[in-house]
Amino acid sequence: MKKSPITVQASIAAPLQKVWDYWTGPEHITQWNQASEDWHCPKASNDLRTGGKFSSTMAAKDGSMSFDFEGVYDEVIPGELIRYTMADGREVSISFEVKDGMTLVIETFDPESMHSEELQRAGWQAIMDNFKRYVETMSRD
Fold it and tell me: Where in this chain does the record put each Activator of Hsp90 ATPase homologue 1/2-like C-terminal domain (predicted)?
């Protein structure tokens, strides 16, 4: 039985174009794409187009573990929507919209079966929160 999708989101105090660029630019992805301080994202690549592939390496800073998070884009509408299928077949959708002067990023993903839904939601939300902090900090420059 397929589990219900999980949604995480953030309301970011930055213009839509900056949020989009920071979400999709490999030079930015490596700065925010981790769920905790003891992990990092040493490399990322992104061919942002329908049919294009992306990959980011997520690794423990102590070198004990790493994995590649990768997939293929099913749909890309610049500044609005990204839909992709991960290497394991699960689907993800990310929408971007401006609401009350903030940029709202809503990410919905199919859960995997190895970890609890609560753990997955917490991990993806932690990455989203890192993204929000990164964009808002960089927006002050």
Answer: 14-136
Rounded to 5°, the CA angle 27-30-35 comes to 150
Domain count, the chain: 1
CATH of the domain at 126: 3.30.530.20
- DSSP characters for 62-75? TSS-EEEEEEEEEE
Instruction: Tell if the pTM clears 0.70, that is, is over it.
Output: yes
Band (pLDDT 50/70/90 cuts) for residue 112 is: very high
Buried b / exposed e over 73-107, threshold 16 CB at 10 Å, is: beebeeeeebbbebeeebebbbebeeeeebbbbeb
Contact 76, 82 (CB under 8 A): yes
Residue 48 located in a structural domain: no
Which residues share a beta bridge with 70? 55
Angstrom distances, CA of residue 88 to CA of 21, 83, 111: 26, 15, 11
